Amino acid sequence: MRGDAARGGPSDGAFIELDRVEKVFDVRRRTGFLKRERRRVRAVDDLSFTVARGETVGYIGPNGAGKSTTIKMLTGILTPSGGRLRVAGIEPSRERTRLAQRIGVVFGQRTTLWWDLPLVDSYRLMHRMYRIPDARYRANLDRLVEHLDLGPLLDTPVRQLSLGQRMRGDIAAALLHDPEVLYLDEPTIGLDVISKARVRDFLRELRDERGTTVLLTTHDLQDIEQLCSRVMVIDHGRLMYDGPLAGLHEAGESERILVVDLDRELPPVDAPAPARVVKVEGPRQWLAFPSSVSAAPLVARIAAEYPLVDLSVREPDIEAVIARMYAGQGNRAASRPPTSIA
């Protein structure tokens, strides 16, 4: 569903509400001796959507699409240039301190922890900053330490933690005060497979047991598939799609890739439609098939008819899915250039 088509007034039952929100930055750059150009960059453009209390929504798009700018406006870090924005009935930029008690934020490439202090000292500081009652703080800390496997790390300075360990520490820090909404900006970026699985398992438990509202931005489609029932796609600051992930795959005609390693070099395998061989390199072959189709029948047939050694399935890249979706829409949205003012 296109953002323009979906626009309406904010729903009365919505927890997060954006109505025709815009964010424009003035960027100056040198173009010559004593000459500068002022360029207006529209990072968010006429954006409208609502998120219900307890909903987990994936908010995706390519780099520079406006995802982080949206999150910063939702937290009050940035003030919208236009439109109306509310979180739990609060206007973030006007009542940032009041809102901070009700939200948690994790930026995957930045930390809210104190770099030179042991992890547990960061939590003690947040205990005081958020004025969390002692009993609730201890109960929350014990629960988070157990679920995120932080026990061996509590006395370790943050600067000595691996990226995966620090990310788990940041998620715990964002949840110590029982926020009603959690913003996750690339929470699994740079993590190994085990760390990603641990973070996803915990977020599923948070969604199912606590009913926390979660807005998740990520470049990893597996994050979306495992955590979200709804996905929104933004690019050039505009909402291009809002609906289930399956609908996004259909709109973008996305494909997964089955990588097959045989025990020797052979001609392209006889793949049943709609799968097809797209590349052969020695004993390794790449087969593309629609994301909406199960890989099981294809794998079973190849295993039964060919000398199979190993295989793996590669998920579609978000940028590729979005590019295909734009192509199907005639590239109307992707062709919107930023405005420049000399």
What does this structure look like?
It is a single chain. Among the domains are: 3-102 and 179-250, 3-Layer(aba) Sandwich (Rossmann fold), CATH 3.40.50.300; 255-315. It is built from eleven helices and 14 strands. It has helices spanning 3-6, 67-75, 96-100, 119-129, 134-147, 163-175, 193-210, 221-227, 245-252, 296-305, 318-328, and strands at 14-32, 35-52, 56-60, 82-87, 103-107, 181-185, 213-217, 230-235, 238-243, 255-262, 276-281, 284-290, 308-314, 339-341. The radius of gyration is 23 Å and the shape is globular. Strand 1 (14-32) and strand 2 (35-52) form a beta hairpin. Strands 5-6-7-3-8-9 form a six-stranded mixed β-sheet, sandwiched between helices. Strands 4-1-2-14 form a four-stranded antiparallel β-sheet.
Question: In summary, what is this structure?
Answer:
The protein has 342 residues and is of the alpha/beta class. The protein is 32% helix and 31% strand.
